[in-house]
Amino acid sequence: METFTDILKCRFGENTPILIEEILDEFSAISRQAVYKKIDAAMAEGSLARYDRGVYYLPTETRFGKSSLLGTQVATKRWLKSGNEIIGYVSGFNLANEAGISDQVPNTLEVTTNKECTRLREVKPFGGWKRIMLRKPRRPVNARNVNALRFLDLITEQQIQFYDEYEFEALKRLARKAGRTMIYDCSASYPGRTAKKLAECERYRVFA
Predict the structure, then answer these.
(1) Closest among 107, 104, 182 to 141, alpha carbons compared
(2) Alpha helix (H) ranges present in the chain?
(3) Residue 208 located in a structural domain
(4) Is residue 79 within 8 Å of residue 53, measured between CB atoms?
(5) How far apart, in whole angstroms, are the C-alpha atoms of residue 146 and residue 186?
(6) Whole-prediction pTM
(7) End-to-end Cα, the chain, rounded Å
(8) Calpha distance 90→188 (Å, rounded)
(9) Are residues 18 and 8 in contact, defined by beta-carbon separation less than 8 angstroms?
(10) Closest CA to 40 of 15, 12, 4, 78
(11) Is residue 79 part of a domain?
(12) SS3 assignment, position 87
């Protein structure tokens, strides 16, 4: 007979974040109270560990003791991907760093995600970040438009130096990934200053 953790392992695997709502959904045939009792029992025997409130994982033994999760794994599971679906992206200075526009590594994690319904909200930090800020997207994020939204966020919020070859090439790479048509389609959800930035991009031949 499969145990509670056997079922979780088959469904989610080891050393991967498992959200409490996923566990409750997996065991929807029994009461929430019964599920929480199973969670407590599995944690007591060491087969299940809690990373943070509402985030669990199945640890493995290493030469340094039980394994742990990375903050980036948890952030991705919570706000960036749901199964195979893209539901968010890192934004702000994190985006500039990720895109190659800046080499600054911020200690604040900013995330734009479909899971957030307010314009801007701060949540309890974890994973070494001093602050974590969540933003509601200007339009729902998906695999087709995520790079266009990232591009538009960059030109709207960051001071792009078009004469800087490094920044210029990084912006062109992202524009190619996003696609000019998708960028202009998504730009309808952005403020007037974004249109001015797009005009600059045209002038400097970012889409060429």
Answers:
(1) 182
(2) 4-12, 20-26, 32-45, 71-75, 92-99, 146-157, 165-178, 180-186, 192-203
(3) no
(4) no
(5) 10
(6) 0.90
(7) 61
(8) 21
(9) yes
(10) 4
(11) yes
(12) coil
Residue 145 has pLDDT above 80, yes or no: yes
Q: Which whole number is the average pLDDT over 32-38?
A: 97
Counting DSSP H helices and E strands in the chain, the numbers are 9, 11
**Whether residues 102 and 88 fall in one domain:** yes
Q: Number of folded domains in the chain?
A: 2
Domain boundary among 21, 41, 66: 66
Burial classification of residue 20, based on how many CB atoms lie within 10 Å of its CB (0-12 exposed, 13-18 middle, 19 or more buried): middle
Residues near 137 by beta carbon (within 8 Å), at least 6 away in sequence:
88, 112, 113, 114, 116, 149
Task: Match 């889409």 to its residue by tokens.
Answer: 207
Summarised one tens digit per residue, pLDDT across range 116-140 is: 999 999 999 999 999 999 999 999 9
- Both tokens of 129, joined, read 């970040």
Q: Tell me which residue range forms the domain holding 111.
A: 71-203
Give the DSSP H/E element, type plus range, for residue 121.
strand 120-123
Reduce the DSSP state of residue 50 to 3 states and report it. strand
Q: How many residues does this entry show for the chain?
A: 208
